[in-house]
Recover the amino acids of this structure.
């Protein structure tokens, strides 16, 4: 059983070759919740904390559906995510720089909506000695330092849309016409590989770092805004995917206290050296207690998963 606090997020960056990149972010919420894990299976239920989430006057209001799942078996570490976010603020520029007059302190776009869905999976080669579950699922205890090479792949779909170009008119000269997007969708698939390592001090204190990088095919369909109107541009080209996981804390036979970080980064080249990239991730603080109990029906499902 666990008590936790977390925040889930995503971000959108439009690169500029000559000026500051344009960065959109949602107004994230901090949640607290309770959860339970049985070996590789996890269910968490969280709720927003009102007194920590009362900054709509600063960054505007974001409405969202956010489902992120991490499935860790002995041999595989997988991430799955589904997000629908509506309402973003500009984190890279202030109101005077974008030329807007608004009630919020930061430039805010209620019309910007994004949808993403995706999954990534990595095979753990040294699964007999290295455990993702000990750090990220809290149902195991790794007592010695160990690492493992990782190899797998990713598949993502990203869709964004707004009432006008994502690049504000006053900044349009700083960005290539190929990134002045009003609507776009991106499908990406490819392999990736990396390495993970857990350093353990005196059997209990641990730090885990995991990184993976991949590249593959990106299929894009963009509605671009120009001086002579709007036009649709299909494009097939390279895309890249980077994944970072980190954890630190204390682990023992019955107790776990840990701070976790997961992030998936996806990027595309759309015009020369300029491009669009986005990320999805979460930060979580867990306080966990383990019980010595078995559930026979769940054990059968776990044995099936471990056989994959």
């Amino acid at each position: 059983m666990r008590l936790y606090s977390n925040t889930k997020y995503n971000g959108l960056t439009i690169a500029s070759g000559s000026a500051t990149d344009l960065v959109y972010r949602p107004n994230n919420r901090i949640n607290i919740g309770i959860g339970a894990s049985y070996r590789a299976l996890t269910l968490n239920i969280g709720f927003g904390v009102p007194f920590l989430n009362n900054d709509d006057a600063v960054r505007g209001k974001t409405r969202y559906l956010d489902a992120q799942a991490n499935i860790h078996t002995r041999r595989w570490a997988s991430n799955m995510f589904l997000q629908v976010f509506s309402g973003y603020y500009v984190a890279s520029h202030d109101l005077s720089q974008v030329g807007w007059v608004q009630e919020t302190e930061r430039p805010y776009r209620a019309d910007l909506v994004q949808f993403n869905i995706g999954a990534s999976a990595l095979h753990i080669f040294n699964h007999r000695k290295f455990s993702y579950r000990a750090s990220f699922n809290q149902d195991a205890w790794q007592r010695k330092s160990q690492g493992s090479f990782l190899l797998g792949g990713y598949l993502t779909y990203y869709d964004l849309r707004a009432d006008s170009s994502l690049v504000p008119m006053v900044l349009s000269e700083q960005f290539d016409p190929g990134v002045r997007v009003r609507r776009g969708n991106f499908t990406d698939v490819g392999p990736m590989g990396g390495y993970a390592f857990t350093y353990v001090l005196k059997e209990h204190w641990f730090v885990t770092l995991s990184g993976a990088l991949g590249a593959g095919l990106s299929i894009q369909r963009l509605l671009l805004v120009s001086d002579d109107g709007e036009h649709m541009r299909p494009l097939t080209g390279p895309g890249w995917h980077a994944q970072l996981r980190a954890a630190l804390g204390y682990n023992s036979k019955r107790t776990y206290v840990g701070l976790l970080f997961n992030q998936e980064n996806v990027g595309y080249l759309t015009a020369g050296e300029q491009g669009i990239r986005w990320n999805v991730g979460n930060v979580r603080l867990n306080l966990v207690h383990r019980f010595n109990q078995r559930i026979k029906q769940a054990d059968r499902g776990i044995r099936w998963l471990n056989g994959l």
